[in-house]
Amino acid sequence: MAQPAQSVPTARPRVLIIGGGFAGLNAARGVAHLPVDLTLVDRRNHHTFQPLLYQVALAVLSPADIAQPIRSILRNQPNASVLMDEVTGIDTSARAVSCASGATLAYDYLIIATGATHSYFGRDDWAPLAPGLKSVEDATEIRRRVLLAFELAERQMVEHGSHPPLNFVVIGGGPTGVELAGAIADITRLYMRRDFRQIDPSKSRVLLLEGSPRVLAAYPADLSAKAEASLTHLGVEVHTGTRVTNLGPGWVEAKHGDTTTRIEAVVTLWAAGVQASPLGKLLAAPPSPPATPAAAVQLDKRGCVLVDDHLNPPGLPNVFVVGDLAHFEQDGHQVPGVAQPAMQMGTYAAHAIAADLKGKPRPAFRYFDKGDMATIGRMDAVANVVWPFKAHLGGFPAWITWIAVHIFFLIGFRNRFAVLLTWVWTYFTFSRGARLITGDQSLPGWPEKPQPSPPLT
Amino acid sequence: MAQPAQSVPTARPRVLIIGGGFAGLNAARGVAHLPVDLTLVDRRNHHTFQPLLYQVALAVLSPADIAQPIRSILRNQPNASVLMDEVTGIDTSARAVSCASGATLAYDYLIIATGATHSYFGRDDWAPLAPGLKSVEDATEIRRRVLLAFELAERQMVEHGSHPPLNFVVIGGGPTGVELAGAIADITRLYMRRDFRQIDPSKSRVLLLEGSPRVLAAYPADLSAKAEASLTHLGVEVHTGTRVTNLGPGWVEAKHGDTTTRIEAVVTLWAAGVQASPLGKLLAAPPSPPATPAAAVQLDKRGCVLVDDHLNPPGLPNVFVVGDLAHFEQDGHQVPGVAQPAMQMGTYAAHAIAADLKGKPRPAFRYFDKGDMATIGRMDAVANVVWPFKAHLGGFPAWITWIAVHIFFLIGFRNRFAVLLTWVWTYFTFSRGARLITGDQSLPGWPEKPQPSPPLT
Q: Which residues pair with A320 in a beta bridge?
């Protein structure tokens, strides 16, 4: 039976977590030994290890290597249940959320951890033309497009002796853009070089367009320079200070200074903008006005919820907003929307609930920054290490650090081992990975054949 | 440049293979060291190891574990090129095929190996309601439906305290139907038992409907009986002599003797009918009548091409039809449409071409039957071993044989090792495998919620 929203609270407080990403899962694990009843709601059945999603997009790993059913992760946590559903309303005065299926879930504590998604800066019509990378579906769609471009080019060579230029355009020079561009350069230059007879995949171009003056703008300047040098070495054409002004099927229009250029693009990928999940808006503007007026929930311009140093929106001490959806400032800087703070915020929310249950005051949240890193192709990376020592690493040492950290955080032993095995095998054999094209076989903007082939006689 | 169909034959004969399944790949490898130019055309970019497809459908293995890009398989074969395209016409008098892209491919030898697909016996409207299992896309669609049924049931329990009966209906008791039914019983009873809080997946029902008097009708009767006993032991309800007369969203209507029963079904799977690929028809009825009339190409009732003991249709000695598309009779029996004869036929076609090039007579094709096997759930199988000794195996010994043979035939070392590792891990830990739901979140026929949930107050 559904628990009616008005039911008398049971002896065990009900903790409701929305979202099964890093923040939500760490919150769930944090309350494992507390006397609470936990429900975790996610519209997907699986947790996605987002830092490795680009390796699925570029056909090195399989989706199941980096994604895992949330209910399997929590199967041995007796106080946890998992529900696949989409939250469509939050009523903080009634302490209940409503779901797309019609279900109503009451809570004593609510932890909102629904993260962020792509932002096309108001040009949602660009989405089908330039997919971004947030979900397993996004990754397999990018994989499909990149692999298909080579197949269509080979086919057109057989038919017409020519093919459109194989330009891969990545928009946005943050960590995702850098990793995607580096990985495309890698697979085209190393892994696919012997696969085709008519075309030479290593002659394809990879263009990385970044609006600001340097890639990895959130990193120290010397690491940005290292990253750009590594990308250039791989053959990626890095265009900083270049803003995309328009795009369409098969082309991107970009502006550098006063010059506007139109670039042909067989595949365009979007790694430029991020906006908060719509749950922030639901919290800020509930469908029905609350019976008990609370201080207004405020959003920043990307839709993130402003939270205090207990990660609560003002006046809602039993609602935590954690992970990429939270706008939390520390020492005058906003904590970035990446995995590490998300994990720490999730754990913090669980600790705060534990403190409440023991009648102790909640500590304030502080983000403990261990550093950041991004890979660039096959055996190269940059790492801004803050803890346990301070260092700016580049090249192979950074790459080994990256491997170690990412293997360590992969959830589940089999995944760790399978991923490591796949990497070792792929890196040392230039092997194929998971280069499957599934789904339909068209690319937006792929040119019609220049002239019809003569009919069979 | 495209090779015009009329071009003067080069010194090296052009071998064109249509289809990259077992038959096509074995033919391609068979001509590796011959002085020929090989082109292999397939509408997919990957070879699918079909005997393990049901393990993808039931979320044990990932698609990339059992599928591999055809061009990677042939990358080290210098005389081979691969084209992803769909053949739409065959002109045996002009010795050319035409493709969906508009390309025309001339040949001196043509090897048609496009296999078979599902047959809904004229009821193609059943296809979206009861998916079959031939491709990676089919497998992920079945996976999506089976996993989603449990998620929707759990969700409906939270909302309404009830859910529709979790009946999984498998139509067809051949090897695929037996393997699917056994595997569903397995994952629901063993692997998912601790994942849900509201529903008990082990209380779901698995029904296997077979029109003929026994399952695995092509096997010796004692192995059919063993298989049925094993299925029953796993909890599968085996209904032989039961024909499906109709089906719709959420239900199947079946007739046993004079009794017609309507069965509620949250997921219906189709493993009943097989029909040849449409390429047989293209060969039998070319778009334009051939300039040189040849003996008519004949098809059997499933659309398979009747071939002589050189695997040629009558009057076409340079056209080989191999694999499931071939209707070849030996000792008064039709050779079955399974992997083993397909491999042997592919290899034979290459040998026949080699004999031609050496000016020697072609030997006649003979199918060398080593036996057949099918798994039933987790550690059980039946095997009709013919070579190197004759035996009817069941239970664990048959299962170990099955594992060994299938690992051995998996193409590529990494796959073999990864698959073995995944199996060992999954079997001994009751672990999750690859239980991802991707794509949309609806099931045909899933009932509307019985009553709307009360609105948030």
A: A111
Residues A138 and A249 in one domain: yes
8 Å CB contact of A4 and B454: yes
Are residues B158 and A437, on separate chains, in Cβ contact within 8 Å?
Answer: no
Which is the catalytic residue, given A154, A159, A179, A253? A179
Highest-confidence segment of A87-101, A426-440, B274-288: A87-101
Number of A/B CB contacts below 8 angstroms equals 204
Looking at A300-362, list the stretches that DSSP marks H as alpha helix, in order from N- to C-terminal side: 339-357
Write the ipTM.
0.89
> Is the residue at B395 inside a domain?
no
pLDDT (tens digit per residue) in B54-110: 989 988 888 988 888 899 889 889 999 999 999 999 999 999 999 998 889 999 999
Rounded to an integer, what distance in angstroms lies between the CA atom of residue A231 and that of residue A53?
Answer: 19
Beta carbons within 8 Å of A125's beta carbon, 6+ residues apart = none
pLDDT higher than threshold 70 for residue B129 = yes
Looking at this protein, which amino acid is placed at residue B36?
A: V
Which member of A151, A156, A198 has the closest CB to residue B45?
A151
Please judge whether A453 and B62 are an interchain contact, meaning their C-beta atoms are less than 8 angstroms apart: no
B83 token code pair: 């084209």
Confidence of residue B340 (pLDDT cuts 50, 70, 90): very high
Helix (H, G, I), strand (E, B) or coil at B221: helix
Who wins on pLDDT, A295 or B453? A295
d(CA A305, CA A23) in angstroms, rounded, equals 15
Q: Which domain range does residue A267 map to?
A: 124-272+379-429
Please state, for a pLDDT cut of 90, what percent of chain A lies above it.
70
Kindly report, residue by residue over B368-425, the tens digit of the pLDDT.
999 999 999 878 999 999 988 999 999 999 988 888 888 877 766 556 766 777 777 6
Q: Which of B288, B307, B311 is nearest to B298 (CA)?
A: B307
A154: closest chain B residue by CA: B83
Q: Are B399 and A33 in contact (CB under 8 A)?
A: no
Which string of DSSP letters, residue by residue, matches B271-336? -S-EEE-THHHHHHS-SS--SS--PPP-B-TTSPEE--TTSPPTT-TTEEE-GGGEE-EETTEEPP
Phi, psi of B357 (to 5 degrees): -65, -30
Q: How many residues are recorded in chain B?
A: 457
Residues A279 and A330 in one domain: yes
Q: Residue B419 and residue B406: Cα distance in Å, rounded?
A: 10
Task: Please list the alpha-helical segments (H only) found in B410-447.
Answer: 413-429
B38, B62, B424, B429, best to mutate vs chain A, most A CBs in 10 Å: B62
pLDDT of residue B284: 87
Three-state DSSP class for residue B4: coil
Comparing alpha-carbon positions, the chain A residue that sits nearest to B136 is: A438
- Same domain for A281 and A327: yes
CB distance A96–B456 less than 8 Å?
A: yes
User: CB burial class (10 A; 0-12, 13-18, 19+) of residue B228?
Assistant: buried
Half-sphere exposure of B454 (CA within 13 A, CB side): 11
Helix axis angle for A221-234 and A175-186, nearest 10°, is 20
Asked if the structure places residue B365 within a domain, the reply is: no
- Residue B159 to residue A46, Cβ atoms within 8 A: no
Binned at pLDDT 50, 70 and 90, residue A2 comes out as very low
Closest C-alpha among A360, A358, A391, A348 to residue A373: A391
Contact call for residues B126 and B169 (beta carbons, < 8 A): no
Q: Is residue A353 part of a domain?
A: yes
Query: Which of A128-132, A179-183, A412-416 has the lowest average pLDDT?
Result: A412-416
Residue B443 lies in a domain: no
Q: What is the pTM of this model?
A: 0.91
CA distance A184 to A202: 10
